[in-house]
């Protein structure tokens, strides 16, 4: 017990959106042009909703977007380890969405799966979700931070800035993008927000960049039932191609929410005192594989699976792993329907600025570490609904995660998926 908390694994993620100008533009030297003043604390408002009021439309949209985004990215990175936070991406894009109009607005609604929500509903729901998630458990730390970095001299819409301050707690800072130290200031904020887990996200600012919108998520929490280090042993991990590598497998017996079909095993490993946040690990059976599972990973199946976990006694063996991911999301988001937002000739963000802008880049970075003390993730495996064959509930299970798996970290109170990924090779 002595150092379990200090050894708890952490997860830090950051998603940022670059907004660029259409064509070449230079900031005029006219001091009368309005630009946002630095505001380092969110604007309080009586309209901000109470934490317990979570809109079910947002939960459904969030999880649909999560699985759709994962599938789109997976097509670019097949058979590789993948880790991301769709929640982080959604927060960053929701802030950006407040500036979109016309065809661009409709395209972003499609990508984010929020067609059934008004802009006001979305902002209210995101504010409530952010407040709720930031207080999950006395032992679990989950910090969500947002910021807008606005180019000095560009006229931004005051209501756009105020909305993002009010509902997203965004810090708004005016910055001289021509200053070579500008990226350093942005990176310093990211470094602080992720407690040193992600130290750099911006290499340089381009002449056409006008705004950088950033979301960061930082999570740190112990397992409710930690794995004992002395029980960890090296064992073969079987790769998809047939090769095997020796790798440390953590081991623990106990009673866990568990679900099994003819094609996979799944377990929920809780964090902290109340188990509100948990890692869901899905392991394909030997006759199936990760590809088959991912093909069945639809929002409808996911919703059905979440209702079928039951408390079971058993043994779980899980590999220790670390993963660092950096991926540009332009292609994946375009595949989800918002390609127009990246098109300089078609994108419209009239509610953001009177200057014609478009999204230049959406970048996502993520870091995760899983060990005996704690982690932030859930395992994934191939599952097909409709061919369920579960053993009797009284029979203890054994789940040895020694081959590629899928995982997600889920908030049990709201049902929102915060992080997800796949591990094809825990040593990669």
SSE map:
Blueprint: E1 10-21, H1 56-74, E2 82-84, H2 86-97, H3 102-112, H4 119-133, E3 141-151, H5 158-168, E4 171-175, H6 182-193, E5 209-220, E6 233-238, E7 244-260, E8 264-270, E9 277-284, H7 290-295, H8 299-305, E10 310-319, E11 321-328, H9 330-338, E12 357-370, E13 379-380, E14 397-400, E15 405-411, E16 417-423
Parallel strand pairs: 3-4, 10-14
Antiparallel strand pairs: 1-5, 1-12, 2-16, 3-5, 6-7, 7-8, 7-10, 8-9, 9-15, 11-12, 13-15, 15-16
Helix pairs in contact: 1-9, 2-3, 3-9, 4-5
Distance N terminus to C terminus?
30 Å
Sequence stretches where pLDDT stays below 50 over 5 or more residues: 1-12, 20-51, 375-392
User: Biggest β-sheet: count, sense, barrel?
Assistant: 10 strands, mixed
State the shape: globular
CATH architectural grouping of the largest domain: 2-Layer Sandwich
**CATH superfamily descriptor of the largest domain:** Antithrombin, subunit I, domain 2
Under CATH at level 1, the class of the largest domain stands as Alpha Beta
Provide the succession of SSEs. EHEHHHEHEHEEEEEHHEEHEEEEE
What is the name of the CATH topology of the largest domain?
Answer: Antithrombin, Chain I, domain 2
Strand content: 25-35%
Mind telling me the C-alpha Rg?
A: 22 Å
Can you tell me the number of structural domains? 2
Q: State the total count of DSSP E strands.
A: 16
Residue-averaged pLDDT: 83
């Amino acid at each position: 017990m002595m150092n379990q908390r200090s050894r708890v694994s952490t997860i830090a993620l950051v998603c940022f959106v670059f907004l660029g100008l259409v064509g070449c533009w230079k900031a005029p030297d006219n001091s009368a042009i309005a630009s946002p003043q630095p505001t380092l604390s969110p604007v309080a408002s009586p309209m901000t909703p109470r934490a317990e009021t979570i809109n079910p439309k947002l939960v459904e949209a969030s999880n649909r977007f999560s699985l759709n985004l994962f599938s789109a990215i997976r097509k670019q990175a097949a058979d590789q380890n993948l880790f991301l936070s769709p929640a982080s991406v959604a927060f960053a894009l929701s802030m950006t969405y407040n500036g979109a109009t016309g065809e661009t607005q409709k395209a972003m609604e499609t990508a984010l799966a929020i067609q059934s929500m008004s802009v006001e509903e979305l902002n209210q729901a995101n504010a409530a979700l952010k407040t709720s998630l930031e207080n999950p458990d006395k032992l679990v730390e989950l910090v969500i931070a947002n910021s807008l970095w606005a180019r000095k001299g560009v006229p931004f819409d005051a209501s756009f800035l105020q909305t993002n301050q009010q509902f997203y707690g965004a810090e708004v800072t005016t910055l001289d993008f021509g200053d070579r130290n500008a990226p350093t200031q942005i990176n310093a904020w990211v470094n602080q927000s992720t407690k040193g887990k992600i130290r750099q996200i911006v290499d340089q600012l381009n002449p056409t960049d006008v705004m950088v919108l950033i979301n960061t998520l930082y999570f740190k929490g112990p397992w409710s039932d930690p794995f004992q280090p002395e029980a960890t042993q090296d064992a073969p991990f079987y790769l998809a191609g047939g090769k095997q590598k020796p790798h440390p497998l953590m081991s623990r017996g106990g009673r866990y929410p568990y679900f099994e079909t003819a094609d996979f095993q799944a377990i929920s490993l809780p964090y902290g005192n109340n188990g509100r946040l948990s890692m869901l690990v899905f392991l394909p059976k030997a006759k199936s594989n990760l590809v088959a599972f991912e093909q069945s990973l639809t929002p409808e199946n996911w919703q059905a699976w979440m209702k079928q976990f039951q408390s079971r006694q058993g043994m779980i063996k899980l590999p220790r792993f670390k993963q660092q991911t950096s991926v540009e999301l332009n292609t994946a988001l375009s595949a989800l329907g918002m390609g127009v937002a990246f098109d300089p000739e078609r994108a419209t963000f009239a509610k953001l600025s009177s200057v014609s802008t478009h999204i230049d880049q959406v970048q996502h970075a993520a870091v995760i570490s899983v060990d005996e003390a704690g982690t932030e993730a859930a395992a994934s495996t191939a599952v097909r609904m409709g061919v369920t064959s579960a053993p009797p509930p009284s029979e203890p299970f054994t789940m040895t995660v020694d081959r590629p798996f899928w995982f997600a970290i889920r908030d049990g109170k709201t049902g929102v998926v915060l992080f997800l990924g796949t591990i094809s090779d825990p040593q990669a």
